[in-house]
Structures are given as C-alpha cells and as structure tokens.
Design goal:
Helix content of chain A: under 10%
Distance between the termini of chain B: 41 Å
Helix content of chain B: under 10%
Shape of chain B: globular
Radius of gyration of chain B: 14 Å
Number of strands of chain B: 11
Radius of gyration of chain A: 13 Å
Order of helices and strands of chain A: EEEEEEEEEEE
Distance between the termini of chain A: 37 Å
Number of strands of chain A: 11
Oligomer: heterodimer
Order of helices and strands of chain B: EEEEEEEEEEE
Largest sheet of chain A: 7 strands, mixed
Structural class of chain B: mainly beta
Number of helices of chain A: 0
C-alpha cells in the first residue's frame, strides 16, 4: 500500500518551454501533497504544500508564478515549470499524505534537464 | 525552528558489521520522527515513523529507536543491498505539518 507515482521520470526540454510533472497517489486518497526539489548530494528542499481544492502554499524564495501547482483531485497533483531555464534543472520529488495520517509517501522523482 | 542533524555524513561497513546512525533533533511539539531510505536517482522510501520517546520499531535488519533528543537507526549484520542514503525527518506541531529533513547518512556496505 501507499504507492505514489510520478510522470514523467525523465524530461529534457529547451529553455523557455514549460514542463508539467504529474504526481498520483495510487492506492489512497491524498488530502495533502508536497513538492520537493533535490540537488546532487543534498537533502530535499520543500517547494510547496498543496491541499486538495485549495491554492498551494509556497516556501519562501519559491516563485509561485514559475512553479504552478494544481491539486484538483484527491489522487492527482501537478507541478508545471513555466518558461524553464537551465538553472531549473534538478530532481523534483512529490509526496502525498492521507487525511488524518502523519506519514508522507514519496514518488520516484522526475529528473528535469533544461538545455 | 525545527532542526535535524544526522551523523555521520558517510559510513562504510563490511558486510555483517553492525552499526548505528544518529539523528539529533530539536522540534516544537513532536508529531512524528520519520526514517527514509533513498537510493541514487530515486525518491525516498518510507521505513519507520516514531511518535514518542521510548518507542522502537524493527524491519528486517533495521531497528529505529527514539529519545526526547535523538533517534538511532541500528543496522544489524548489514548486507551490500543495504547501501543507500538514510534520511531522518521530524514533523512538529506547527499548522503546516511539514517535514524538516536532515542531510542524510550515506551508508556503503562492502561485500
């Protein structure tokens, strides 16, 4: 149980284009989903928290107009990186937490490379 | 502000050589302490949640313990497949209920 998927696992795009990453909870309903970014040999950095049906809450320093988050259902959240630039290249990981639960279950991550 | 410090940063063990990883924390109202395993290029895999001092949990060769100031992840007779980065995180009583992660311990088990 508690499986979270992400799609795509790898994406390469040109500078200036937008990229959408999907995060799905496969066997439970996730009232809250989180998006993280991880640089090589570093720990996870929280970007934003999203509750189903509400606007996402962004961490300080994260541009909400650049990283658009939609949590339209209890099993799906999307992160759209708009007008991507090479400095946005990173490993993006989502996690999901069920209502009343404390544990976050993580997806496998999406590697983004912006050329 | 919640803080998590993990030590050592890296640990190399021979197969079968038991050891412990440390996670020291300060948190305002602990709601949970979490251990995850992360393999290169993958998302963290959930291992344990501990909620109160004195609690212990086991899974195969791993055992997690919790005090009011720190948690230990004990690895008994490790195998090469136990090689990974082990992450510790805490969740405080703040309204956001977010996780604060440590920087991880990179474990290498040599055959």
């Amino acid at each position: 149980g508690a499986v979270v998927s992400q799609h795509p696992s790898w994406v390469i795009c040109k500078s200036g284009t937008s990229v959408k990453i999907e995060c799905r909870s496969l066997d439970f309903q996730a009232t809250t989903m989180f998006w993280y970014r991880q640089f090589p040999k570093q720990s996870l950095m929280l970007m934003a928290t999203s509750n189903e049906g509400s606007k996402a809450t962004y961490e300080q320093g994260v541009e909400k107009d650049k990283f658009l988050i939609n949590h339209a259902s209890l099993t799906l959240s999307t992160l759209t990186v708009t007008s991507a630039h090479p400095e946005d290249s990173s490993f993006y990981i989502c996690s999901a937490r069920a209502a009343g639960g404390e544990t976050q279950y993580f997806g496998p991550g999406t590697r983004l490379l912006v050329l | 502000e919640d803080q998590v410090t993990q030590s050592p940063e890296a640990l190399r063990l021979q197969e079968g050589e038991s050891s412990s990883l440390n996670c020291s924390y300060t948190v305002s109202g602990l709601r949970g302490l979490f251990w995850y395993r992360q393999d290169p290029g993958k998302g963290p895999e959930f291992l344990f949640t501990l909620y109160s001092a004195g609690e212990e949990k086991e899974k195969e060769r791993l055992k997690a313990t919790l005090t009011k100031k720190e948690s230990f992840l004990h690895i008994t007779a490790p195998k090469p497949e136990d090689s990974a980065t082990y992450l510790c995180a805490v969740q405080g009583s703040g309204s956001a209920r977010q996780l604060t992660f440590g920087s991880g311990t990179q474990l290498t088990v040599l055959p």
